[in-house]
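# step 3/5: fold
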Amino acid sequence: MKNILQMLEASEKRFPDKTAFSDGETEFSYARLTRSAKGVGTALARLGAGFPFPVPVIAPRSAAQVVGMLGALYGGGFYTVIDPDSPEERVRDIFDTLQPVTAVCSREFLPLARRLLPGKELISLEEASDGEIDEGLLSGIRSRMIDADPAYVLFTSGSTGKPKGAVLTHRNVLAYADWVANAFAIDENTVFGNQAPLSFSMSVLDVYTSLLCGATVRIIPKKLFSFPVELFGYLNDNGVNTIYWVPSALCIVANCSLFEYARIDGVKKVLFAGEVMPVKQLNYWMDSMPKGTLFANLFGPTETTDICSYYIVDRRFDDAGSLPIGRNCDNTALSVITAQGREAAPGEEGELYVRGAIVGAGYYRDPERTAESFVPDPLDPYCPQTVYRTGDLVKYNDRGELLFISRIDNQIKHMGYRIEPGEIEASVGALPGVRAVCCVYDSVKDEIVLVYEGARRADEKSVEKLSAARLPGYMLPQRFIKVPSLPRTGSGKTDRTRIAAEYAGGNNNG
């Protein structure tokens, strides 16, 4: 295969009437999904916008979003899923980078698109889905496509405050979906319970592995994560057997001890990524699920399609411990490079570099930041091979497993020491009654700030006292701030930027 659409069409031939995507209100079989995406593709192709061209998709989190994504590919474009709940200024920044000539929008967001793209011809998702299909036109576009063409541009936060658009190709997605299917035995019997927004890189696993294997994706309504009992009911009622969630979503279940009065009957695989998984809450899941349930810690940045390393949990960890991020994915090579540009010795810390079929093409219309992060392989100066610098500080343990230490730019320099916030978070997060933790640094006041949510008994004085017994003095936060709940990003991750802005004057580095 050289094109994502070939995965869709192969599964459509095998399972035309099988549910591909549903969201609680709308359901698309593989046949309907293919037909609707071709309708959108035909409408886009008739614009004559060139090849390839950017197509923003603006729609609620739904099965219909997938139609817009695949329709963009049929029409000769590459897509960017726009979260309609994002601040309009951020969407404008994204459009400034993309310079789109059109957008695919659900009806309710056409006014927003008209403000952002005045005078441009817009594609109504609902109308185009049911519109005419020009197979000749679509075939002509397909004949020009190669696997190195961009499939989507996904925007992540940038250090300058402006979002940066990571370009991922058809080749990247095909390689990634193939690895996932083999590593976790995904097939046509798999039913994903999707938590990740489709504007977030984690959704790539659910969406494209399903298209490859003919699996089913149930897009879980976001509101259910505020009502965990109903969430479990949804998983049971919809036959979900595989979940891939951010740790914060898994912690919601653990922190309310949900398994004491509810069960999930069919889930056999629990995958997680996007942030550090607290071991205390993982142990609760492992103790509560049937023996034989697979748990896996996946790790990687958007620029590597989603994941570059993984660890299938094979042993018990102490509540205050940290999970490995494991080993490289298939057809992916990982290197640990010191600040001096050499390969780190076993146990020595260094930056994680990634090469292989899952490494993206760079940042859209941003050659400077592309050159900073997508660099020649420092370990092979003779072959011009590009590797991605992740900015993650890692090392190998004595088992040969990779360990995540911290983001390089999140290291705290305090009292002459270099401190990893993750170490403080793991220690405090293991305390009784503490549910979620975020450590930030106020460089102006030279203070470590610990913001947490917890039970009534976990008041600030008691948490500080218990922390003092676990942490060396130079690592003990100067401020402990208890909040009803930690703020989350749209993808469900802990919003560290907002926490730093509210409690550390916007500073988060040493």
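# step 4/5: annotate
Residues 411-503 form a domain with the GMP Synthetase; Chain A, domain 3 fold (CATH 3.30.300.30).
# step 5/5: archive (pending)
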